[in-house]
């Protein structure tokens, strides 16, 4: 598991470890949250993808030769891209849990995701404009609009909703002129997450569905509170068609907006994701199912899971409260519930993640002079 400092990676380490699967945790520092987890059976330090893709991939390959063979699970989007682009450096001991680079690239590219959805007969937000920020500024589409980058970008790391033409122009003007962007229509409705594991023949090996009750950032962010719901058979089939259209097998989290049978797919993750602890707490161990598919083991049959389990990302809620949404201040969260970071059977990673989040926030405040 790469990116051992990230909470999504910690969630993956815990899920695999609880299923009895030995985990080698890789991070850039020895006190990273994933490396102090009781479920990390082996620990290693190495460069991040940002330090150089080749150095990162070669370190993964070295670990696979020394301790493998290993299935390599990326913990963050940057690692996904680095591993699929430089898979020629990995060697036979490092197994990527993907069918190949093209299916992964098609899903994580926002503009190509819309094309896949259309080919699969699934809705997606209408693209209002696509191109470089400087060109779009000269002839900006009408607001309200949703602005995102086709792939991960340090200049626009999260999707932004612009309610007015002025907001849209100000956003475009503040980005590098050559920044690649996709501008889509805004789709209203609840944010529904559908996580699927497809076997190598395209069959559904595992599925989990949740609905977000609160997001941070509020208009187009990640779930800060959500709840597990029963899987919608039609939505599961729609999501599986999108993945099959890409030629993808393995685990993917698809995000939908809409309702009443009219859904639009807005995002796809081909890695462990932030609210994964909810699926595991509800009884759907998606990482274990993904591992079975990746290793050619007996693929599980989709089982039942508990509905009504609540997910609570405390850091997101506190940040929202600090930014003026006082109703987000911690109160009584319904039970049964699970946190984004904390686990009673594995407390040290939660403490380290909280420490890292607090240190980052202090650093940002000092950097802004506040």
Report on this model:
The longest helix has 21 residues, at 347-367. Helices cover 35% and strands 23% of the residues. The protein is built from 12 helices and 15 strands. The protein has helices at 7-18, 53-67, 77-85, 101-108, 110-119, 133-138, 165-173, 233-246, 276-282, 286-295, 314-322, 347-367, and strands at 24-27, 42-45, 70-71, 94-95, 127-132, 145-148, 160-162, 180-185, 191-198, 204-216, 222-229, 250-259, 262-269, 310-312, 337-339. The protein has 370 residues and is α+β, with helices and mostly antiparallel strands. The protein starts with 6 loop residues before the first helix and ends with a helix. The chain has 3 domains: 7-106, Rossmann fold (3-Layer(aba) Sandwich); 126-185, Dna Ligase, domain 1 (2-Layer Sandwich), CATH 3.30.1490; 191-339, ATP-grasp fold, B domain (D-amino Acid Aminotransferase, Chain A, domain 1).
